[in-house]
Amino acid sequence: MDQEKQSHVSETEILSVEERDVLALARLGKKPILKFQGTDNFGNLGDNNFTGWLVICGWQAILAGSAYLGGNMIITLARLNHASYEPALWQGTLVYWCVMAVAILVNMYASKILPKLESFILVLHIGGFFAVLVPLVVVCIRFLRMWGLLAVGRKKRKG
After folding, report:
1. DSSP labels for 24-55?
2. How many of the other CB atoms lie within 10 Å of CB of 144?
3. What is the model's pTM?
C-alpha cells in the first residue's frame, strides 16, 4: 500500500502544471476550456531559453545604441561649435557612459513625472507642427500670387 502511494506521488510530480490542472478538472468532472500550446506567447517556437536570450540581447543593444548615438551627437555638437576641439577616444567613452547613467537615473527616480512630461511634450509637438505649418502655407500663397502662379479669386481679363 505504501509503495502505491509513493509511485502515485512520483507520477504527479513529473506532470507539468498544465497536465496537473487538467487532472484536477477531470476529478471535478469538468473539461478544460483552454488548450495550452506553449509556455511563451509565441506558441511552440522552440526553446524558451532562446527567446529569453533574444529579448535580453535586444534590450542591451537598444540601450547601448541609444547611448552611443546620444554621446556622438554631444561630441559632434562640441566639434561644430569649437573648430579647434579634437576629442580623444576616452572622451567619447566617458560621454557614452554619462548618457547611459542619465537615462538610467531618470527612469529610476523621475518615473512618476515621466507620463506628465511626455504628455506636455506631445502637446508641444502638436502646437509646434501648426506653428510651422500655418506660416509656411501663408508664405507659400503669397509667393505663388507674387509670381502669378495662383489665380484663385481673381477674374480673368479679356485682352
Report:
1. HHHHTT---SS----SSTT-S-S-HHHHHHHH
2. 13
3. 0.49
Helix (H), strand (E), coil (C) string for 54-112: HHHHHHHHHHHHHHHHHHHHHHHHHHHHCCCCCCCHHHHHHHHHHHHHHHHHHHHHCCC
The predicted-structure confidence for 131-150, as pLDDT tens digits, reads as follows 999 999 999 888 888 777 77
Nearest to 96 by CA among 120, 121, 78, 75: 75
Look-up of cell digits 507539468: 16
**What's the burial of 95, exposed, middle or buried (CB within 10 Å: 0-12/13-18/19+)?**
buried
Q: Cell digits for 19?
A: 497536465
